Every structure is written in C-alpha cells, then in structure tokens.
UniProtKB/TrEMBL annotation:
PANTHER family: MEMBRANE-ANCHORED UBIQUITIN-FOLD PROTEIN, UBIQUITIN-LIKE PROTEIN 3 HCG-1 PROTEIN. One of its GO terms (cellular component) is plasma membrane. This is Membrane-anchored ubiquitin-fold protein. Coiled coil: none annotated. The keyword Cell membrane applies. CDD domains: Ubl_MUBs_plant. The keyword Lipoprotein applies. It is found in: Cell membrane. May serve as docking site to facilitate the association of other proteins to the plasma membrane. It comes from Rubus argutus (Southern blackberry). PROSITE patterns: UBIQUITIN_2. It is a lipid-anchor.
C-alpha cells in the first residue's frame, strides 16, 4: 500500500494585495523550490519584481520561512484546521545590495574611522 503524500493548498499575497500562485503543493516541497515557482509565476506588470530566490521572503504565522526546509518542516497549517481551507502566505521582496556598493561603503567607513599622525 502506498501512502499518499499530503498536499497543502496555498496562495501568496504580494506587496500590493494581489494574490498569486493559488494551488495545491506537496508538503515535501522545499521553500526554495516554492520560491522558484513563484518567480516563474510573478506578474510582469508589477513595479517590484524579484530577480532571484534570495530576494523573496515568505512569511507564515509571523515567521520567515527558511529555504532549506520543506513545507512540512516549516509546520505550514491553517489555524483552526478548517477542511478545504486555503492558507495565505505573505511575500516580501528585498532586493540584494550590489557587492560593489557594499565594498564602496566599507572603504568609506575605513576612511572615516582611520586617523593619521604627522610628526614635524
């Protein structure tokens, strides 16, 4: 007898209140895989569009989900366990800061924090 994999019905609310990705997902799916799928379904007309999985944060129950964990490991469940209920997760886009900009800021900070003495 094969055991049927548990499925979780999810939808994702983005910054402007639009819902995307309404579907049933396997509880064994990792958060990173889920984010990849969301990136492929992201509405192109939006002003804020993530470019990589690392720019997307999924929030459920007040917690940011970790990429390496599965949905089951993240304990995704509806509150009150309503049968047939759809779970809404919030999606936050946080663009990564360019490494060049970060390096420039570090050099500026070193200049500000360094001092020099000149003996005449």
């Amino acid at each position: 007898m094969s055991q049927r994999e548990e499925r979780i019905e999810l939808k994702f609310r983005i910054y402007d209140g639009t819902d995307i990705g309404h579907s049933s997902y396997a509880s064994s799916m990792t958060v990173a895989t889920l984010k990849k799928r969301l990136l492929s379904e992201w509405p192109q007309a939006k002003t804020v569009t993530p470019k990589t999985v690392n720019e997307v944060k999924l929030i459920h129950g007040g917690r940011v989900l970790e990429n390496s964990k599965t949905l089951a490991d993240s304990r995704i469940m509806s509150f009150g366990n309503l049968p047939g209920g759809v779970i809404t997760m919030h999606v936050v886009v946080q663009p990564t800061i360019a490494k060049e900009k970060k390096a420039k800021n570090q050099k500026d900070m070193q200049k500000m924090n360094s001092c020099s003495c000149t003996i005449l």
